[in-house]
Every structure is written in structure tokens, then in C-alpha cells.
UniProtKB/TrEMBL annotation:
Name this polypeptide is given: Lamin Tail Domain
Pfam families: DUF5689 (PF18942), LTD (PF00932)
Domain LTD: 271-455
Top-level taxon: Bacteria
Length: 455
């Protein structure tokens, strides 16, 4: 915390950047006296949890929203810095939303204006990791009424230029919520080109339009939310690539959204470039093993049947395990990241419980070690691509494999050589399975890094 020990000079001056007021321009600002106040950071405010806000406690920040074009309603967004960098290890760049009983907030609080927020008498919520301030109303909060704003949101004479943080959609984090960000080289979903930003009969309060960012390996999306009362609600969605500067937020339906301060913050930068078709490589599971002699050497083999190497960035192998608890069985999904591995053309990736035990027992090396790879013969596995789509599966993740026809306890399950494509549905006939409960007449050999061969 920072304790202010000197009285601020009371300065009456003309602001170099005026608050917007369509009736009378507010040009005089009296800097508040905060000498007896205790300033805390946004992070400290977020971490208060159920603790009460202390007496004479304040936070300071800069207004980053504007309702001049009608796209915000009875709310102000405040950020703890004008810039893009954290203020310190324990003071990251953060933002907050303040509920106010004023429909034209830009007439009182201009974008870029530094404000002092008197926290005493206010309540904060952190639903969806969003800091929101308002007056207490039971377990909820309500608007700070217009006649009270001067007691809680105090203007200073300092006004600056807010610099948006430039990010990719995939790089947005919870720390960016309630702050001003800039996302470059986006386009709207092709099926929405030429539609208005909002005000369609299906847009109950706000229009939600899909923004996309694409490259050859991934497609990321986010919604642009536009109020039906925004001045630009009837503007048509452009057939172009765009850069967007907006507030990053979460909608009432718990979806990530961007919200424009003004239509000028959506800038056309070039010809529309639709997302290319993303073809998922035919990566597949070819062996699942539970060697009885060395359980730490349990492994799953993944094979690339194509003629090109494939990066497994953002791919995930998920093990499904049923455990008994108080006479009930509970399902656990245990993810294993494959992201740091590239699988060669016609090559393999081996995921094991323990690399040392695996290499000692099989005399070959494994690629990934994970404690989550500990299937004891009745666990199912799913292979998910970077978009979370199910590509391949062994077993039935919805059922405990004990006693099932796909159980491989103390044995192995090997994909038949003639199967060269993944299957999101488990088909037992694609596999040869050996476990302790089967009287097998032929010997199945563990063959990591090789397609299985009978002996």
C-alpha cells in the first residue's frame, strides 16, 4: 500500500483535454486532497475477497471507455495505467468496470482522464475475473447514482493518451479484461459481411458479430458486441481485413467480447482474406501398453501416416480414469500436452510414465514423460487437435474399462497395420488386444516405434 503524507496543492486550471459535454464544457478541475487516504493497487482490490474495503482507501486509474457514440450504458472502464506495461511485479496492468447511474458518462469523465476512486462505501465483485465496483445491494451491487459520483469518482487535472495493448486473439488473458486492447488483421465471418453491427430483430439488446483471425494452422474467434443504441449500430460490416481497438470484456452469456468506444476504432487495412481450409493431419494412436513387468514403462504410441512432419503444438492426449470414492466411481480426465514435439513423416511419438524405465525396458527412447500416463489396462485415451476436436480414441471414455472387450491390463492393444487413418469412434475390430484374461494362441510383441508385427 502507498500512504499519501503530503497535502496536494489545490489547483484550479483549464484542462488541456476537456471532458465532452454537449451542453457545457467542464474546463475547471480541482485536484482532490488525498493526503489522508491510503492507496491500494487494482490487484490488492481484486484480492480482498470477502474482506471489507478499509476506511479512507482509494485506487487511482485512467478512464479508457467512452459512451459518446452510445456503445456503453451506465458504466465506466478504468485502467491502472495509460500504457501497456505492468507497473510492477505485484501491480500488473489491470482494469475495472464501475456501475454508474449516468447515461452520458463522457460528459463527466473523458477518456484518458485520471480519476481517484474513493472505495469507502463501495462494494466490488470479481465474477468471471472482472473487477466491478458499485454501491452495495445485499450480496450484489447497484449503480452509483449521479448525485453521488462526485463523492466516489474524483477527477484530477491529469489527462493522457491511452495506449492500447497490441495482442493476438490467442494471447488475451484474464489480466487484459476491462482494459483497452488492439487486435490486428481480423475479419468478420464471411456469412455476416454486409449485415449491420446490431439492431437486427434477433439482436435483443446488443448485436454479436464474429471476428476471426486465421493462419495456416489455427483459427481464433471472438465476438464484437455492439449496442442497439450505438450511433453506428446500422453501419454495415465491411468486406475487408480490419484492426480493432476496443475494451476486452465478458458478455452476460459468459463469452469473451470486444466493445468499441467509437466506430473510428475499427480500421480497414486491406482486402478481405478468408480463412483457408484447415486440414487436420491424420495423426493416430497405434499402441497402448501396460507392461506387467515394469509398470513405469507404460506408454502410448502415436503415429504419423502422412508424408510430412507435423508439429503437435496445442495437441493433447487425454487419459480417462475411473477411481472409486465412497462406494462410487468418479471419472477423471487427465490431459497430457504434446505441444513441444514434432512428429516425423511416417514416424512416431512415444508418451510414457517414466522415460528412464521405458528406455531401460524397451531399449528405445521416449519423447514425452508424464505422470498422467499411468493407465493400468482399463483406461481410455483420446487424441485432441489444437481446436479441441476429437481425432482418435482408444476405448470408451464414458465407461470403466474393467472387464470390457477393450481392456488391456498387463498387456497391449495394437492398431492393425492396415488401419492408416484415425477414427473418432472406437472400433474394436481395428485393434489386436492382449490382456491377462485372454487365452491367446499367438504372441503379441511390444513394438514401440514400429507398426505391430505378429510373431
Amino acid at each position: 500500500m502507498k500512504k499519501h503524507t503530503l497535502f496536494s496543492l489545490i489547483i484550479l486550471l483549464v484542462s488541456c483535454v476537456e471532458d465532452i459535454n454537449h451542453k457545457t464544457i467542464d474546463t475547471t478541475i480541482v485536484n482532490p486532497d488525498i493526503s489522508q487516504k491510503t492507496e491500494i493497487t487494482f490487484k490488492q482490490l481484486y484480492n480482498l475477497h470477502n474482506n471489507e474495503i478499509g476506511k479512507d482507501t482509494i485506487v487511482t486509474g485512467y478512464v479508457v471507455s467512452s459512451d459518446q457514440q452510445g456503445n456503453f450504458y451506465k458504466e465506466i472502464f478504468v485502467q491502472n495505467t495509460l500504457g501497456i506495461a505492468d507497473l510492477g511485479v505485484d501491480n500488473p496492468r489491470m482494469g475495472m468496470r464501475i456501475r454508474v447511474g449516468l447515461t452520458n458518462t463522457s460528459t463527466k469523465y473523458a477518456k484518458g482522464r485520471k480519476v481517484i476512486i474513493n472505495l469507502e462505501g463501495l462494494k466490488r465483485t470479481t465474477s468471471d475475473d472482472l473487477i466491478t465496483l458499485g454501491k452495495p445491494s445485499g450480496t450484489y451491487i447497484k449503480d452509483i447514482l449521479e448525485f453521488e459520483l462526485g463523492d466516489y469518482i474524483l477527477k484530477t487535472d491529469e489527462v493522457g493518451i491511452v495506449i492500447p495493448k497490441i495482442l493476438k486473439l490467442s494471447d488475451l488473458t484474464n489480466h487484459d479484461l476491462n482494459t483497452l486492447v488492439k487486435i490486428e488483421d481480423l475479419h468478420f465471418n464471411i456469412n455476416q459481411i454486409g449485415m449491420p453491427f446490431s439492431s437486427l430483430p434477433t439482436d435483443e439488446y446488443d448485436g454479436l458479430r464474429i471476428l476471426e483471425f486465421c493462419n495456416t494452422k489455427r483459427r481464433d474467434t471472438i465476438l464484437l458486441e455492439t449496442s442497439n443504441f450505438a450511433d453506428f449500430s446500422d453501419n454495415l460490416i465491411p468486406n475487408a481485413q480490419v484492426d480493432i481497438t476496443a475494451i476486452y470484456n465478458i458478455s452476460f452469456n459468459n463469452e469473451p467480447i470486444l466493445v468499441l468506444n467509437q466506430i473510428e476504432d475499427l480500421v480497414e487495412i486491406g482486402t478481405y482474406d478468408n480463412c483457408p481450409e484447415i486440414v487436420t493431419p491424420n495423426i493416430m494412436i497405434t499402441e497402448v501398453a501396460d507392461p506387467k513387468e515394469v509398470t513405469k514403462a507404460r506408454f502410448v504410441e502415436i503415429y504419423n501416416p502422412t508424408n510430412k512432419e507435423v508439429s503437435l503444438k496445442d495437441w493433447i492426449l487425454v487419459r480417462y480414469n475411473y477411481t472409486s470414492f465412497k462406494n462410487t466411481k468418479e471419472l477423471a480426465a487427465l490431459p497430457i500436452s504434446l505441444t513441444n514435439v514434432t512428429i516425423p513423416a511416417k514416424g512416431f511419438v512415444i508418451v510414457t510414465r517414466d522415460k528412464a524405465a521405458f528406455s531401460t525396458y524397451f531399449e528405445v527412447t521416449a519423447d514425452i514423460e508424464s505422470s498422467n500416463l499411468d493407465g493400468n489396462g482399463d483406461d481410455a485415451y483420446e487424441l485432441l487437435d489444437p481446436f479441441g476436436a476429437l481425432i482418435d480414441v482408444y476405448g470408451n471414455a464414458s465407461n470403466d474399462g474393467t472387464g470390457s472387450d477393450w481392456e488391456y491390463m498387463d498387456g497391449i492393444a495394437v492398431r492393425k497395420v492396415e488401419i492408416d487413418e484415425p477414427n473418432s469412434d472406437f472400433i474394436k475390430s481395428e485393434w489386436e488386444i492382449l490382456n491377462v484374461n485372454i487365452d491367446i494362441k499367438i504372441k503379441l510383441k511390444y513394438n514401440p516405434r514400429k507398426r505391430w508385427i505378429e510373431e
